[in-house]
From TrEMBL:
It is a multi-pass membrane protein. SUPFAM superfamilies: Cation efflux protein transmembrane domain-like (SSF161111). This is Cation efflux protein transmembrane domain-containing protein. Pfam families: Cation_efflux (PF01545). Its main location: membrane. Residues 1-123 form the Cation efflux protein transmembrane domain. One of its GO terms (cellular component) is membrane.
Length: 215
């Protein structure tokens, strides 16, 4: 997307420097309007089908940017028609190229946002606030039900996988509170509490008497 935007800006500048280009405003507006409608419908369908799936979200964003570009083409056709009715009709050959440059500048934040999001996920960044809140809620309920202390909690998200690590620091006299059965119950409780999230949830549960090993 970045490469495409850079190319169209350079090409638009070249056209302006060469004296502009003649356009058919009616064809321009018709094409832009039809293309914008198709692109918007496709973007909405993709978002509905692939919610929270990064690759499909990126594809939907591409179609959304195409919709914006098409809308600008539509506006460009209308602008050219209006220019023909004014003393400024001499600017008609430049109208399309100027709108292409403006549209590209408006779209630059979209690929930048996708790049930043992708890099954060590749580095295993923390999930967004809503997911973190759900994780804390699910872990808190299980800890209360099992009579366990508030754990040292870590969560990360990479692609479609959310990884959760809950480390419980228990007193030496905790007895069977930190046995395998307890760990399994905690994992099941967290898993069930997050079952409605559209992610693969990976859960690690640790019990220790030494906080220095998990902090």
């Amino acid at each position: 997307m970045v490469g495409t935007l850079a190319y169209v800006v350079v090409e638009a500048v070249r056209v302006i420097l060469s004296g502009g280009s003649e356009v058919s405003p009616v064809s321009l507006a018709a094409y832009g309007g039809a293309s914008a409608i198709v692109s918007i419908l496709t973007a909405l369908a993709l978002r509905r089908m692939g919610k929270d799936l990064p690759l499909i979200e990126a594809e939907a964003a591409g179609w959304l940017s195409a919709a914006v570009s098409s809308a600008l083409i539509f506006v460009g056709g209308l602008v050219v028609l209006l220019l023909r009715l004014t003393p400024a009709r001499g600017f008609e050959p430049y109208a399309d190229s100027v709108l292409v440059i403006l549209g590209s500048l408006l779209l630059v934040p979209l690929p930048v946002m996708l790049l930043r999001k992708g890099l954060r996920e590749l580095l295993g960044s923390v999930p967004d606030d809503a997911i973190q809140a759900r994780v804390r809620e699910a872990v808190g309920k299980v800890a209360t039900a099992e009579g366990l202390p508030v754990p040292i909690l870590r969560a990360s998200k990479q692609g479609n996988t959310v990884s959760i690590e809950a480390a419980f620091v228990l007193p030496d006299e905790s007895g069977d509170a930190g046995d395998v059965d307890a760990a399994d119950r905690v994992r099941r409780g967290i898993r069930d509490g997050l079952a409605d999230l559209p992610y693969d949830v990976w859960i690690i549960v640790e019990f220790t008497h030494d906080a220095g090993l998990v902090e």
